[in-house]
Amino acid sequence: MKFLPFILFTVLTNAAAQLMLKQGMTTLSAMEWAGSNPLLKAIGIVFHPWVFAGLATFVVSMASHMFVLQKVELSFAYPFLSLAYVAVAVASWYFFSENLDAPRLIGIGLIMAGTIFIAQSGASAHASDHQTQAMSEPAE
């Protein structure tokens, strides 16, 4: 559980990146879409300030995730990324006035419950690893 702050940082940066990309793609001007050269279109999109910020934030999120993967089990860390959906759904409702209806709220509740179960299993597995290690060390 000592790496939980890093896992949550990964989740939040992932969600922030999604929100920045959404903002960027909805505010693209006709200039970025103009012309027939697909390479110029792609460059215009990538270097739009919100899109670029979103992509840069994804890089930070991925670096954080790789650090987490070095320290904890993948089967423990990866399910936490589902919390990014929760953050994105709530922030999209707040910032973009997107719909947050009953089925989505139920889904969010299930995601959060599942993440809590996974977190609890990781905490108990981590505690049992420490007990096993303590028992195997010679007494002084």
Structural summary, described in words:
The longest helix has 35 residues, at 102-136. By secondary structure, the chain is an all-alpha fold. The protein is built from seven helices and no strands. The protein has one domain (4-136). It has helices at residues 4-26, 30-33, 38-46, 49-71, 74-77, 83-96, 102-136. The model has no long low-confidence stretch (mean pLDDT 87).
* Order of helical and strand elements: HHHHHHH
Determine the fraction of residues in helical runs and give it as a percent range: over 70%
SSE class = mainly alpha
Write down the overall mean pLDDT.
87
Overall strand count: 0
List the helices and strands and how they pair.
Layout (H helix, E strand, L loop, with lengths): L3 H23 L3 H4 L4 H9 L2 H23 L2 H4 L5 H14 L5 H35 L4
Helix pairs in contact: 1-4, 1-6, 6-7
What descriptors fit this protein?
single chain, 140 residues, mainly alpha, 7 helices, 80% helix, 0% strand
Quick summary:
The protein has 140 residues and is mostly helical.
